[in-house]
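re the bet — no i am not wrong, look at it urself. input seq straight from the record:
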Amino acid sequence: MDFTPLSQNKISGKQFYLTKEGLEKIKKEYEFLKYVKLSKTKGETPQFLHSDELNPEYIDFQDDMSLLETKLADLKYILENSRLIEPPPKNKQNIVQLGAKVLVDIDGQKDEFIILGTLEANPSLGRISNESPVGRALLGRKIGEEIVISSPIKTHYKIKKIKYSK
């Protein structure tokens, strides 16, 4: 499990798009962290002072609790502001939308991407974000359309196939 907090500044006002599996993973992590927090607070809390000095165990405990609270708040916010990625109606499955598996020809090479929300993106697994330059450029396009992405070099993408899972 990833315990890195997202920070409310980065996620505030944002909508999160998740697959059913992604939503379940977030829910499980949230429930697990609530359990961890409850376990930590039920145990014996280190004393604030140790002799005349601040107790380092207390400081560590407070840091852990702060990190845990931040992560729980982030996950709660995500759960409250998420939308499930659903396949579009049959008559719109010829258009690239969230959840689409897109087969493209990239300057003569074939590649396949699934377009997901940022929380489930993993480019090394072919799962790209709808907010990435390629994901953004593919959204709303149809089979046969060509797009050009200009990063350090120009790359031509031609959409060959669009498929949705149930």
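see?? Residues 90-164 form a domain with the Chitinase A; domain 3 fold (CATH 3.10.50.30). told u. also The longest helix spans residues 56-80. so pay up
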